[in-house]
Amino acid sequence: MLNFEWYNPTRLIFGEGQISKLNNFISKDQKILLAYGGGSIFNNGVYQQVMDALSGYAIVEFGGIEANPHYETLMKAVELVREQKITYILAVGGGSVIDGVKFISAAVQFEGDPIDIIKNKMLIKENAVPFGTVLTLPATASEMNSGSVVTIAATQEKLSFGGEALFPQFSICDPTVIQSLPLRQIQNGLVDAFVHVLEQYLTFPQQAHLQDRIAEGILLTLIETAPKVLRDPRDYVAASNFMWCCTMALNGLISKGVVTDWATHAIGHELTALYHIDHARTLAIIGPNLYRVLFETKKQKLAQYGKNVWKLDQGSDEQIAEKAIEMTVQFFKETGMPTTISQCTDDYHTAVSFIVERFRDRNWTALGEKKNLDLEKLQGIIEKSL
Question: For the residues of 114-180, what is the DSSP string, one character each?
């Protein structure tokens, strides 16, 4: 296991009815920007719960943050925060809203052009506007980490950044919010969390036994929970386990002391930028094909995954590793995910040249935990994904 430090200052408030505690975590002298997305919070009762809890507070609202938050939209919020002298931001939404708020938080006091935060993948360590979150869509764990992904619409780029100043001060996670979610969003959340774990776990044996066991526990719980929560999101036991898995998948715990991958995400982000395919769906498309192309360096961990998660015990380790990939594809299909680009767009033939050229232009020529995903292998992954 590698040396590591772990810092996670986010206070997590979990369970039914916890939104009513909002006023315990924001002082009344703060001027709040209430940031949200397309307006679903007005239909599911969350907006009213938030406003009831913050009765008497000075609140300025900013809605319309996209499912893949756009830099151009977020800069309007940055100007609003500056003009209104807002001192606190409350993100009410899913991972995209929270990611957007992280950019707003970082950009308000940034010296220079805020687009550089995104383009240069900057680490923000200070001078961020404090913020908290009310989670409405389990998926990304943005409610308990310091990472963010923002899209620059003008150049069709989806890029990540982060830094220790971008942890939420608190996050309220009420599993009952999923009752009003469209089925597609629940599907996306399940697969997003699943692949978050795989990005940190499906690498090579690193003798980090506890991290492996926790990762396998999250995967097993998601597999067990998926059919229940898809069938009946009002099932509180299923909903609460789903939400907690999503948070645990990417709050930093299982990545400590190990080398991680994240190439599936890097490729998937380009599919979202090019075709506007849902983030989780890009992961379901790319992940299995990445495992196939990089099979030789991942096969030991794939075999472990097959044995401990999918309970495979027939055949050689190599055969179990291959079967584990197929079981993963089958799981994605059972949750309703497409597993090819052509299922999502008729223009899929442009994907290979677009993504390969973009990675070449950025000099992203050695990705993955072994830094062995070169442009030739990248092309092979995308071709298999068509």
Answer: THHHHHTT-B--S----EEEEE-S-SS-GGGSS-EEEEEGGGTEEEEEB-GGGS-SEEEE-GGGGGG
Query: Which SS3 state, helix, strand or coil, does residue 374 take?
Result: coil
CA distances from 26 to 22, 53, 155, 382 (A): 7, 10, 37, 46
What is the value of pTM for the model shown?
0.96
Phi then psi for 60, rounded to 5 degrees? -115, 130
CA 147 – CA 36 distance, rounded (Å): 18
The model's pLDDT over 80-101, given as tens digits with 9 standing for 90+, comes to 999 999 999 999 999 999 999 9
Place of tokens 């978050």: 196
Residues 231-281 have pLDDT tens digits of 999 999 999 999 999 999 999 999 999 999 999 999 999 999 999 999 999
- 27 burial (CB, 10 Å; 0-12 / 13-18 / 19+) is exposed
3-state secondary structure of 12: strand
Side-chain half-sphere exposure of 234, counting CA atoms within 13 A: 0
